[in-house]
Amino acid sequence: MSFDLASRLAERRVADLYRQRPLLDSPQGPLVRVDGRELLAFCSNDYLGLANHPLVIEAWRAGARRWGVGGGASHLVIGHSTPHHELEEALADFTGRPRALLFSTGYMANLGAVTALLGPGDTVLEDRLNHASLLDAGLLSGARFSRYPHNDAASLATRLDKARGDTLVVSDGVFSMDGDLADLPALCREARSRGAWVMVDDAHGFGPLGASGGGIVEHFGLGQDDVQVLVGTLGKAFGTAGAFVAGSDELIETLVQFARPYIYTTSQPPALACATLQSLQLLRSEHWRREHLAALIRRFRDGAARIGLSLMDSTTPIQPILVGDSARALQLSQLLRERGILVTAIRPPTVAMGSARLRVTLSAAHDGAQVDRLLEALAACWPLLVEAGDA
Ligand SMILES: *Cc1c(COP(=O)(O)O)cnc(C)c1O
């Protein structure tokens, strides 16, 4: 009857699945100080290099002087301040939608949107590789929950034909651990022809993707009739923290009234909204960041092909190197670290059993020489991986 935490922890260790937190002792950036050592890092989601941008930091400081540091209360009580409101309006303009609603984190935005829209008697259909927060949201909603094979629009269509009640198709925009894009044109077509709605969580698409950083919907030229519920997070390419849902006035009002993770939490610090307003401006205006990042992605992929590394089918800053076995993924990460390069291993249950990987991520803050250093280190380390445990 008592909690046997020790054996749970031991099991995890034996399976090479034990997690440790690298201790970061510097701001985000290509060069970081981790566990007392300077390393060249390729694993943050700061895709545009805005997390430590002087103008964003200054906006935060000015915001704190003007508005203080605490949100003070939930949005519905007395926590909804002018910077929050301005950021929502700016995000609505950015996404080309009537309104946007600010959440404290992407996890909460996903829980809030799905649970506000669906309940028992409804149906939620999710890509098998969706982010954990979307899967948790589907389960929490109490709706009939089904996962379709990755990006399989035909399988989605079969499930849509059997769906009951209000039906929501939910997908990552850019898949967070693989870097590939949702086949949104096909998914939206199947949903739309049957009156289902589509919700896209584009945590990794806003910023890098689309001509003006508008993410996967801009990339594919899709509108609100295709994707009714559009989620973005602010802790990745925006370089700050928080998240938003963009959509119709009716959708946003529904979330304000019914989304529990929106209602029952303190608003984010208003100074943070000031910082995000600044980073949104940089994201929209400094196209060189997107272009430089795209050039780095090409450089990395070309170089990886030359040294015989098999990369996944990704055109985004997420460029995972599939290893398979968890112990070997840890080993590769360790070998790179010995050469001064930090890429953390991603293991189950974050990814499927047998698909452990090094999730390399590129940022506009990197330069070409740094990408070359990564490639050289990979060329040296890859052959050293022992085959043990691979059978
Ligand atoms: C990071 C991430 C989230 C969570 O966002 P936070 O703001 O970090 O809570 C949600 N969805 C996806 C796809 C993500 O990658």
Description of the molecule:
Pathway: Cofactor biosynthesis; biotin biosynthesis. Its cofactor is pyridoxal 5'-phosphate. Keywords: Biotin biosynthesis, Pyridoxal phosphate, Transferase. The chain is an alpha/beta fold. It is built from 15 helices and 13 strands. The strands form 3 sheets. Strands 3-9-8-7-6-4-5 form a 7-stranded mixed sheet, sandwiched between helices. It has a 3-stranded mixed sheet with strand order 1-2-11. The radius of gyration is 21 Å and the shape is globular. It binds pyridoxal-5'-phosphate.
Name its key features.
391 residues, alpha/beta, seven-stranded mixed β-sheet, 15 helices, globular, binds pyridoxal-5'-phosphate, Aminotrans_II_pyridoxalP_BS, pyridoxal phosphate, 8-amino-7-oxononanoate synthase
How would you summarize this macromolecular structure in one to three sentences?
With 391 residues, the protein is α/β, with parallel strands linked by helices. 43% of the residues lie in helices and 16% in strands. The protein contains 15 helices and 13 strands.
